[in-house]
Specification:
The complex is a heterodimer of chains A (113) and B (113). The model of chain A has no long low-confidence stretch (mean pLDDT 92). In chain A, strands 2, 5, 6, 10, 11 and 12 form a six-stranded mixed beta sheet that branches. By secondary structure, chain A is mainly beta. Chain A has no helices and twelve strands. By secondary structure, chain B is an all-beta fold. Helix content of chain B is 0%, strand content 51%. In chain B, strands 2, 4, 5, 6, 9, 10 and 11 form a seven-stranded mixed beta sheet that branches. A four-stranded antiparallel beta sheet of chain B has the order 1-3-8-7, with no helix packed on it. Chain B starts with a strand and ends with a strand. The mean pLDDT of chain B is 94. Classes of the chains: A mainly beta (113), B mainly beta (113).
């Protein structure tokens, strides 16, 4: 069965610093991968997705993620973090066989001045 | 185009009371989902409906029932609320279940005393 691991429960970065959030997945075939963001008190919003093709995908709000098959990873990056990026971030992998997305447990990002 | 809407936004119940959480989407999506979110637990799937007329259990279905009323609406019922069901509940929809991104509602915060 598919699974997603987000190794970091909580990360704190300084405003203006770069960010990398880790995501590892377990899936036999080429996966469909997603990153979502959840601001406090809000629902989840899609940041970006990878289906095929270029392994570096661009998303909204200046985020990007790189699919690395050899490492079974899909890490999320941003070159310069803004205070408004403080939120919880979820990685998800699509399955096959008419079953829903599998979500990681999330990484909470705090941004300090 | 409202996307995914949920009612109510907040609810307080006493142990043993029943209630129904309502969810509707206007994107003509086939699949709909109910999740609960608890601190440190990420998103856990309660039930989903791959298409109109079908429902399936997710990871944590005990204590809940669902109804896919039509293509637009998917309700979640708590027959006899328990304090362990205190949580934030999210509804989501997608064009299909497997390789599609999900669109989330704003959530319902439920407290059971």
């Amino acid at each position: 069965a598919q699974s997603v691991t987000q190794p970091d429960i909580h990360i704190t970065v300084s405003e203006g610093a770069s960010l990398e959030l880790r995501c590892n997945y377990s899936y036999g075939a080429t996966p469909y991968l997603f990153w979502y963001v959840q601001s406090p008190g809000q629902g989840l919003q899609l940041l970006l997705k990878y289906f095929s093709g270029d392994t570096l995908v661009q998303g909204i709000k200046g985020f990007e993620a790189e699919f690395k098959r050899s490492q079974s990873s899909f890490n999320l990056r941003k070159p310069s973090v803004h205070w408004s990026d403080a939120a919880e971030y979820f990685c998800a992998v699509a399955s096959s066989g008419n079953t829903p997305l599998v979500f990681g447990k999330g990484t909470r990002l705090s941004v300090i001045a | 185009n409202a996307g995914v809407t949920q009612t109510p936004k907040f609810q307080v119940l006493k142990t043993g009371q029943s209630m129904t959480l309502q969810c509707a989407q206007d994107m003509n999506h086939n699949s709909m989902y109910w999740y609960r979110q608890d601190p440190g637990m990420g998103l856990r799937l309660i039930y989903y409906s791959a298409s109109e007329g079908t429902t399936d259990k997710g990871e944590v279905p005990n204590g809940y029932n669902v109804s896919r009323l039509n293509k637009r609406e998917f309700s979640l019922r708590l027959e006899s609320a328990a304090p362990s069901q205190t949580s934030v509940y999210f509804c989501a929809s997608s064009p299909g279940t497997d390789a599609y991104e999900q669109y989330f509602g704003p959530g319902t915060r439920l407290t059971v005393t």
